[in-house]
Specification:
19% strand; five-stranded parallel β-sheet; alpha/beta; binds flavin mononucleotide; 5 strands; 6 helices
């Protein structure tokens, strides 16, 4: 059975991106996958200090929740990265999280990645810059990362508005397809 790790980066509990994470998870669970979701805002994750110590030790000098989440990333088969769009990029929680993968990012190999973004904007093209920021991590820095699916969750400003958009069903179907393909 394949293991899916969902990283939910919104500070807004039950917000639009988390709703899509749960839809994705429900689809994946129904098709037989094992799913775990990490809600970053409830974790203690400090900023990368750029000290470089982890380049030789493979361990961060900060002993916070990132160590456990990194271990989950290394062992997962499929990783879902979900963020609200903040000023046309990923939010600070997601960026801080990605920066803290340095100690073990070379071990995050051959994973399937799915991306979930939510925004008030009505045009999917306007979320491409956020997607490009994700690619700077997955495509440019991780060995064998596969871009398996993207949800552009537009037209969602207030929490819950995403339920009225196509993305709500897309996320469920995408989760379900992961199970049918991989599990
Ligand atoms: C600090 C901040 C910056 C935002 N910047 C943008 C933006 O650049 N473009 C946009 O379309 N929506 C922007 N929004 C709206 C959010 O992307 C939108 O409400 C999204 O659905 C939030 O997802 P969440 O409920 O998962 O947190 C911003 C919201 C906040 C709080």
């Amino acid at each position: 059975m394949k293991h899916i790790l969902i990283i939910s980066a919104s500070p807004r509990k039950n917000g639009n991106s988390e709703i899509l994470c749960d839809r994705f998870a429900n689809g994946a669970l129904e098709s037989g996958c094992k799913v775990e979701k990490v809600f970053l805002a409830s974790k203690n994750i400090g900023y990368c200090r750029g000290c470089g110590v982890c380049n030789s030790t493979r361990q961060c000098v900060q002993r916070d929740d990132m160590e456990e989440i990194l271990a989950k990333m290394v062992s997962a088969d499929v990783i879902v990265l979900a963020t609200p769009v903040y000023f046309y990029s990923m939010d600070g929680q997601m960026k801080t999280f990605i920066d803290r993968t340095v100690p073990r990012y070379t071990e995050i190999r051959n994973k399937d990645f799915y991306f979930i973004m939510t925004a008030a904007d009505t045009e999917k093209e306007n979320l491409e810059r956020t997607m490009e920021a994700f690619r700077g991590f997955t495509e440019d820095c991780l060995d064998g990362a596969r871009e398996a699916g993207i949800i552009y969750g537009t037209r969602a400003w207030q929490a819950g508005e995403i339920r009225a958009t196509d993305a709500y069903d897309e996320a469920y179907e995408m989760g379900k397809s992961v199970g049918l393909l991989n599990c």
